Amino acid sequence: MKKSILKFLKYFGYFTLLVVLFALALVFYPSPESLPQKKGLYKYIITNVNIVDVANDSIIANQSILIEDNRIVQIIYSDSIINDSNYTVIDGNNKYAMAGLWDMHSHLAIQLAPQIVMPLHIANGVTNIRDMQGVVRINKERILWREQIESGELLGPRIIGFADEIVGDNYDERDVIQVVNRSAKDEATFVKIYSNIEPDRYFKLAKEAKKQNVNFAGHYPNEVNPLVASNAGQRSFEHAHLFIDYSHSASEKKREYYKAIRLEKIPTESLKVSYDEMLANFELQKFYELADVMVKNETYFCPTHITKRYEAFANNAEFLKDERQKYIPSIILNIWKDDVIGTKERNQKTRTDFYNKGLELTGLAQKRGVKILAGTDSYDPYSFPGFSLHEELAELVTAGLSPAEALATATINPSKYFTVSNEYGSIEKGKIADIILLQKNPLAYIKNSTSITAVFFNGSLYNRKELNSFLNYVEQNVSGINGMSITVKLFLRLMKDNRPSVRNSVEE
Ligand SMILES: [Zn+2]
Question: How far, in Å, from the CA of 380 to the mean position of ligand 1?
Fold first, then answer.
């Protein structure tokens, strides 16, 4: 008996050792090399192409677009002949040329974003992003990526703006003045607001941010009236629940509820406001009140409807089977599974009503003049980097925007948000040559935005075959031994970064 226990312990010891060695091997297993941008000086003419003029909701037919290096240098009628052998002629074949798209609520999320996130963006024509930070602190990497993308080395969307700090998450105790000081050092950075920031800290931050010309954007704070937050200068509000949360008779009570929780008092039953109550007591007048203040202050709205979609479809087997999961690392897929299980416990009708009300209010907000931004919150359940931007555009059309208005949320509006309209956001002479060639007209039907035959990024041409190779590259990287190695590396990084001492540190 004793002998068999010893024998078992011996084999158990060997087994444990093997597991540890295997995990170590995965940690040191080299990460796949990131993809480079195409190098060289290019001169292209795209002939016989229809330009998608989003601002005027019209097609400018039969054009030729001349590209030199990374800029559009001229746009002429296709019939005018250019005899210059220095140009490579690309027959547009009566296709549609649309400006590169922006994802205004992206999460590069992890230290291996160049291997598993960025190629998905480019393959889907997403050429610029606003990055909203996440649990893993990728500040150092992201600054490096941004430089490498801008200098033409690394293949990935330009990181035009990014949150280098989050305040108001579960761990947050950072000195808000220091946070603003730090963001002030780099023009491209902003402070991300999360729901749990205390009102005193929020207003202190807002005041300092105004003084130092630093942007802050994100969730509206749970305890602060979003109308007041807009007046305090918050640059954008994220997620579709914003207007639902505010536009009902018990919104003040809801703020009291969060306050009681923060003060570790047990909130009385009377302070609780359920989703159903919010929806049942919706007040259109309150909605207009908030929308009008946002219009006045130019507070943008990034509803990320795509993230509410999975909640509405959590019981739909077809939806959950999405084959694009092959592009997502298993560690993220496991989080998705847990989220879906958690969601299923909530009432199906409430979830669907909430999702639909969100869409309806985004449509109304657009009509009222609120500036909308397309964002995906990718890596939230069933939000796929790159792909889901197109789904968000379709969501916005369901909400009541015209296809042109939806496309504006991913082209014109983001360029205005970052005051870079002279460089991006449309196909015009002098602008950066980020152009998506589409088989079909997206103004006629928004889902045509996915009929991508080629992408010009930074003046270089990537044909469909090359775009597909980017997708394959990501699929390879998240599967097999590469995938296991990535999972272990992500897991360790999460363990390292997701601690109060790290999350609260201002120094890097
Ligand atoms: Zn997010």
Answer: 8
For the stretch 363-408, pLDDT in tens is 999 999 999 999 999 999 999 999 999 999 999 999 999 999 999 9
Give me the residues near ligand 1 (ion), CB cutoff below 5 Å: 132, 377
Q: Give the residue range(s) of CATH 2.30.40.10 domains in the chain.
A: 40-99+427-463
pTM over 0.85: yes
Measured in angstroms, how far is the CA atom of residue 192 from the centroid of ligand 1?
A: 10
- The one-character DSSP state at 90 is E
103 close to 157: Cβ distance less than 8 angstroms: yes
3-state secondary structure 248-281: ECCHHHHHHHHHHHHCCCCCCHHHCCCHHHHHHC
Q: Which CATH class is domain 101-247+282-424?
A: alpha beta
Cα(61) to ligand 1 centroid in Å equals: 38
**Where are the domain boundaries for CATH 3.20.20.140 in the chain?**
101-247+282-424
CA 208–ligand 1 middle distance (angstroms): 24
Q: Which residue has the tokens 């209010």?
A: 361
Superfamily of domain 40-99+427-463: Urease, subunit C, domain 1 (2.30.40.10)
